[in-house]
Design a protein that fits this description.
By secondary structure, the protein is mostly beta strands. It is 0% helix and 39% strand. It contains no helices and 16 strands. It has a four-stranded antiparallel β-sheet with strand order 1-2-3-4, with no helix packed on it. A four-stranded antiparallel β-sheet has the order 5-6-7-8, with no helix packed on it. Strands 9-10-11-12 form a four-stranded antiparallel β-sheet, with no helix packed on it. Strand 15 and strand 16 form a beta hairpin. The protein is globular and about 45 Å long. The two termini are 26 Å apart. The N terminus is likely disordered.
Length: 196
Amino acid sequence: PDVASTDQQVLMARYSVASDGSLLYQPRESAGSAAATPVWVDRSGAQREVEAGWTTSAHNLFSGPRLSPDGRTLLIPRPEGGVWDLWSKDLAGGPITKLTFGGAYRPVWKPAGDSIYFISNRDGPSALYSIPVDGSGVSRQVLNTTMPVTEARVSRDGVGLVYVAHNSLTSTSILARGPSPDTSTTVLVESDRLNI
């Protein structure tokens, strides 16, 4: 199948969709092989390599890629030395650059495309961080909460934030944070039945 996975028992699609509807994905080249060539797929189903000669292997396989809002940059979560961090790939033939250090996963682009949110447990329980994607700044923790944060989404206008936090082993909440300067948090859903 055209699904890349580092574990034959767990099939994980590795893809992202551009605003024009183009699909970028990492197909598995052959059964038992972790090597792959990331490809673009347009609405007609036609495929082309993202970049000639760019392939991934078991050592640089990525998971959960995220395209920038303008479709020019790809965020690539991938492991290095057992720690997942985020890498940035200029899709116009530029290099792959390490963006985060100390653990990062589940990246989300801010609509302006100049920075991202991501989850990390580098300073304790998993928390939400932000960093500029041009490498000009350091990551900073965005939310001050004692509950582990596991997922986040930003509103299309870039001012609102919805995130998932776990209150305990049995209770999960979906919360919303308003725009600055009013960064008050509202609980949207709290339940022991959320499967997130």
